[in-house]
Structure formats: structure tokens, C-alpha cells
Amino acid sequence: LFQRISTVPEGLITIEGGAVNRNALLALKGVLENSAVFASSSLPLPLLLEKENIHFQLTLRLKDPKQFFPQ
After folding, report:
1. Residue 1: closest CA among 15, 14, 11, 12
2. Alpha-helical segments (H) within the chain
């Protein structure tokens, strides 16, 4: 469940939300990392230690920011 999505023209997107458990969070991270849109993602390490009801903030870097933020 996403609660907030924010972007900056430099190509970073931050997604905040909640995951039922660690496996669901890692699955989301994997899907986003394997997409054609994102180059990388980062998730604070302490979140990976939580098992259930995880409030997360996932930061993603766009492969081509100009596609979404034309100049």
C-alpha cells in the first residue's frame, strides 16, 4: 500500500507505504529494480530486520529522467 510518492527532476523517486511483511517488501523492491524504468533502489537496512507491518521508504533512481522530466 503506497501512502506517498514524491519525485525530483534529478531522477529520484521516493515511495512511502506499508508492507504486510518482509517478503512482500522485498518482492516489491525486486519488481521495481527489474523494471525497465528504474536503474537502482535503496531501502534502509533496519527495515529488512522487521518481520511484519513494515512502514517503508524506498528510494528509486530513474534510468532516463529526461523521459519523465523533459527540459
Report:
1. 15
2. 22-33, 65-68
Q: Count CB-CB contacts under 10 A for residue 53.
A: 9
pTM value? Answer: 0.80
Cα distance between residue 56 and residue 65, in whole Å: 23
Helix (H, G, I), strand (E, B) or coil at 49: helix
* Amino acid in position 68: F
- Residue 71's pLDDT band (boundaries 50, 70, 90)? low
Which DSSP state fits 50? Answer: -
**Residue 17, C-alpha cell as written in the block:** 507505504
What pLDDT, in 10s, does the model give residues 20-33?
999 999 999 999 98
